[in-house]
Amino acid sequence: MEFGVFDHLDRYGGALADYYEDRLKIVEAYDRAGFHAYHLAEHHSTPLGMAPSPSVFLAAVAERTRRLRFGPLVWPMPLHHPLRLIEEICMLDQLSGGRLDIGFGRGAAPIELEYYGVAPQDAQEIYGEAVELVIKGLTHKVLDFKGRRFSFSGVPMELEPLRKPHPPIWYGLHAPESAERAARRGLNVVSLDPTNEARLAIERYRTIWQQVHAPASALPKLGLGRFIVVAPSDAAALALARRAYLVWHASFTHLFRRHRRAQSHPGRRPSICSPSADRESLARRRRSLGSSPASSARPAATTWWGSSPSAT
Q1: Tag placement on the chain: N or C end, fewer CB within 10 Å?
Q2: What does the buried/exposed string (b/e) look like for 230-246 if buried means 16 or more CB atoms within 10 Å of the residue's CB?
Q3: Share of the chain above pLDDT 90, in %
Q4: How confident is the model over 279-296, as pLDDT tens digits?
Q5: What is the helix (H) or strand (E) element at residue 171, kind and residue range?
Q6: Nearest to residue 30, comparing CAs of 5, 2, 51?
Q7: How far apart are CA 104 and CA 300, in angstroms?
Q8: Cα–Cα separations (whole angstroms), residue 122 to 60, 78, 179
């Protein structure tokens, strides 16, 4: 079993420069404590994410840590030009001594895509082409590609990643179908879904993996993301979680409430973000928050993930 941290880098009070320094000190603590990896979300125009350019923050992480693996979870591909992303990946992997993990997605927040002039209905097609293009650029000296969204001819790849053929790739699981695609490609995966849904996806991954890969092949990491608070007692954990979760949840729903839209997120049922609905939802979640070291983990304020080849 390995443990890592999935961080939204969500905003709290104080000067922004002090905020970034505080968060980098926390990442240094993860490095000293022996966490396997630090994964960072990308969001735009919302207090949910103060790292709209993950590569910039992760370059600082590379400098401030020595053994911790790190990476985006995920880069929303409709918001990144593939050629620029290839170069950033190579730089980060070289600067960190090969400690970069990479994660790609189509973008889970339609409002954020729209801010950048991207039609959410086009995101899946852009994502598919862009990921194929980036992987090709990381593994070839000259890039040739022709697709519906992108076309390149004879582009020299002057940079290369330190880790060959490319840094480890992470993929977010939301259904057995996505688990099957990831298993065929041999990707590390993480699920934020409820336990029963996550179990179905992981079981499908294992089944397909056994069918298409050699028996001696090492199984990729299978991750499960959960909110966790550790405190001396359940009551103390609950008190911490209540305070922190309300702030995080307000940031998580910020854009949906601002635009009076139904909340949508992979693995969760969409809900109308009216004040009364939010209060009811938070009341239900409050009752399940918090954990002490002696009891099983329940949702709380800080997102951590654990992964193990044998864990479901």
Answers
A1: N
A2: ebeebeebbebbbebbe
A3: 68
A4: 444 344 434 333 333 333
A5: strand 169-173
A6: 5
A7: 26
A8: 33, 8, 22
- Supply 16's token pair: 């922004």
Structure tokens at 87: 């170069």
C-alpha 181/C-alpha 240 separation (Å) is 39
Helix axis angle for 234-252 and 275-286, nearest 10°, is 150
Q: Is 4 helix (H, G, I), strand (E, B) or coil?
A: strand
Calpha distance 141→134 (Å, rounded): 12
| DSSP 3-state of 15 | coil
Instruction: Encode pLDDT of 23-50 as tens digits.
Output: 999 999 999 999 999 999 999 999 999 9
β-strand pairing of 169-173 with 102-105:
parallel
Instruction: Locate the DSSP E strands across the chain.
Output: 2-7, 37-40, 69-72, 75-76, 102-105, 142-146, 151-156, 169-173, 188-191, 222-228, 262-265, 268-272, 302-307
Type of residue found at 137: G
User: Checking DSSP bridges between strand 69-72 and strand 37-40, what pairing results, if any?
Assistant: parallel
Write down the residue that tokens 């069918």 correspond to: 211
